[in-house]
Amino acid sequence: MAAVRDKAVVVTGAGGGIGAALARRFAAEGARVAVNDLDARKARRTAEEIGAVAVPGDASTVVPAARAALGGTVDIFCANAGVGTGGGPEAPEDDWALAWDVNVMAHVRAARALLPQWLACGSGRFVSTVSAAGLLTMVDAAPYSVTKHGAYAFAEWLSLTYRHRGIDVHAICPQGVRTGMLAATGAAGDLVLAPTAIEPEDVAEALFTAMAEGRFLVLPHPEVAGYYTARAADPDRWLGGMNHLQRKLEQDGGGTR
Length: 257
Fold this sequence. Notes:
It is a single chain. Helices cover 51% and strands 11% of the residues. With 257 residues, the protein is of the alpha/beta class. Strands 3-2-1-4-5-6-7 form a seven-stranded parallel beta sheet, sandwiched between helices. Helix 1 packs parallel to helix 2 and helix 4 runs parallel beside helix 5 (142-162). The radius of gyration is 18 Å and the shape is globular. The N and C termini lie far apart (48 Å). The relative contact order is 0.13.
């Protein structure tokens, strides 16, 4: 098991769902945890539950406040906050901008703030909650799928660039997880994600297993590895299968037309 006792850990979007599960698990393992969420009430609730400190606010700019709250350093940063924007090209510009800002640029800004200290001391751990949509895609959710691909690409870039300098990076790519975000996906989520949905605690367990094994890619749904391989081996066949899901969604009265 990767040692986390007494480590200073920040988890964004930790007012509920996967973020709260990650915060609980790190606290249970003896870490000093800063709970971030845009909703200050939710951040405080999670923090009080686990004996952590709340640092509410925008995930893009939380690093200085979290560092101050944790005694001047951040050892592990969990970039977990995300938005599940649906629709296609017709989605409003503001929806696309929000998806880019939260799902990608918040990770970039956090890394920008963290890397100088981590590189100076030769250690640090960046955990990106991506989604299987970042490896595959998700029907009826272009902004989400595109930006989660971006989040995965950024995590991959961080790992290949800095692993020899002591920086560990993990990309968590679950399919359906029983959270409020899943509930908001509507018919598409019911069709693709709900049948195999897992609990947020299962995601936290998968991360800790990956940290212990030194693995970049975290797959709480192991079958995603097979889908990812099939997508790379035969893109047209894979796209045909996904189009079958799209047509079924449309036949059932949902999805982009």
